[in-house]
Each structure stands twice: as C-alpha cells, then as structure tokens.
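Researcher: Next entry in the queue.
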Amino acid sequence: MLINCVLYQDGKRIRDIPVDEIGQWIGRGDSFVWVALRDATNEELAAAQTQFDLPDLAIEDVRNGHQRPKIEEYGDTVFAVLHLIESSGHDVNVGELAIFAGRDYVLSVRNRSEQGFLGVRARCEREPELLRYGSSFVLYALMDAVVDRYFPLIDAFEIELEAIEEKIFDQGAARSNVQRLYALKHKVMILRHAVAPLSEAMTKLYGGRVPALCAQTQEYFRDISDHLYRINGGIDTIRDTISTAIQVNLAMVTIETGEVGKRLTGWAAIFAVATTIVGIWGMNFEHMPELKWEYGYVFALAVIAGVCGVMWYYFRRAKWL
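Model: Structure for this entry, 321 residues:
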C-alpha cells in the first residue's frame, strides 16, 4: 500500500506527486522524491523498481522478507534492512523496514509492522537546513527512528527482570520464575539479533571509504552507531543478569529440595524409633518383660511418645523440622 509520495527541493516539501510522475524528477539533481510503502505487493515493488532502477537482488530481499539486518551498496544506491520490534506482554512481533536511498530518491518499504514513520517525515520537514543534504539525511532519520525505538524495549526488559528478581526468594515460585526468565531471555535474543548485525554494518557509513551518498552525513551515522553500542551494552548486561538469576533460582530449588529432604528424614527417624519399639513388643513370645503387667500397654505408649518427643525436640533445634 502506498503511504505517500512527496517531492522535495532545496530542503523543502514541494507537493505530493502521483507515482507515474516520479520519472520526471529523477536525474534532475536539484530535488528528490521520498516514497513510503507498507506491505507492498509484487506489483508495487515492480513499479518502484522500474521507476528508480533498483537492483534485482535487493528487490528480491524485500519481496521474500525475513532478512538479517544489513547495509549494502549497489552502485549509487544504498540498501538497508532493519528490524522493527514490537513487544506487548508475552508476544514479540518482528517486522522489517527496507530502505533504498539514491542521489535523488528515497524508498522505504515497511512489512509486518504497525510502527509508522509519519513523525520522521515531520521531523525532517521541520529541519530544512538538514533536509538540504537530500536523501542521505532521510536515510539517517529513518534509521535513527528505528534504533531509538530499541531503547524503550531495553527499559521494559530491565523492569520485567527486576520484577522477576523480587520473587526469586519466594518459596514455591521457582518453576514460574525459571519460565519467566527463559521467556525474557528469548525476547532479549530477538532484540540482539536486530542490533548486533546492524551495529556491525553501520561502520560502512562513516569513517574510511563510505558511499558517496553519505559522505556529508557521516557524523550522523556515527551517532546511530553510538546508540547501537549503548543498546548492545544494555543487552549484554540483561543477558548476564538473566543467567545469574537462573543460577540463583536453580540454587534456591536445590536448597528447597534439601529442606524437604531434611524434614522427611527427621520424621522418618522418629517413626523408625516408634516402629522399632512396637515391633519388639509385638513379638509373640510367652516370657517378655511387662507382657502381663496391667499398665504395660500405657507404659509402652509413654515410652514411644517420650522417645519420639525427645527426637522431635533435637531435630527442631537443629532446624530439620
């Protein structure tokens, strides 16, 4: 679906133009066209490829989807793929944003995501002195918007991790804690798969040899790289904390199991003594002490109760019971 198709000149928005007029403005050198598509059909991609002379391999990547975040250079065209991550409760949705940036055009294709970029367009139009850099600044603005949306995810993951940590020492919560920790670890790994490859690819856009399109905006792409470095650090910290929390949780399970074992052992010892006494008195011999004594039964019960009581007292002091 076509979101918008706008002509810009000298850092200012001129007007919306129909798609079939794009060819009239390509190659003039004094303007550029910014086209945004969402969940583009094969027909729309084919039309865009014809209008902007886009490389077949890049179009195939957009059509197939599920690409690793990357930045590639095709002649005068810079092609970037970024992951759009939306987290709601236990579910994480991963969409994609593909960006084609040439000297006089920018084409963005958003797939499988509800995250819009109208705010990015408004930001660019509020800064005409920067928009004069042309399509390279739009490329930066789109990438910067995607990366900035990773920061709230880091904050949300940290809050969720803190909530789990508060319950680690709650008795009987071990199983649910481990399940929640592994679910959180899965979400963190999804974010890491979006950030780590992009962080590596960003080095192509600043320092050393960079595409001619990005020569005047290298410092902006370096700023994105700094953000990605911070996000990577936050991800590593969360992953380490999750691993520690899982180890502590498993240690608590072992401790709880040991406590249960001690209680069972204590009660088993107490009943073993009672069983031994009853077993001795229950042997069928004619001549046994106190066998025919009037108070023998009561005496036997008293001995059993007394011995068991003493054992219970010592086990209690030893914190086995």
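Model: The first helix runs from residue 22 to 25.
Researcher: Noted, moving on.
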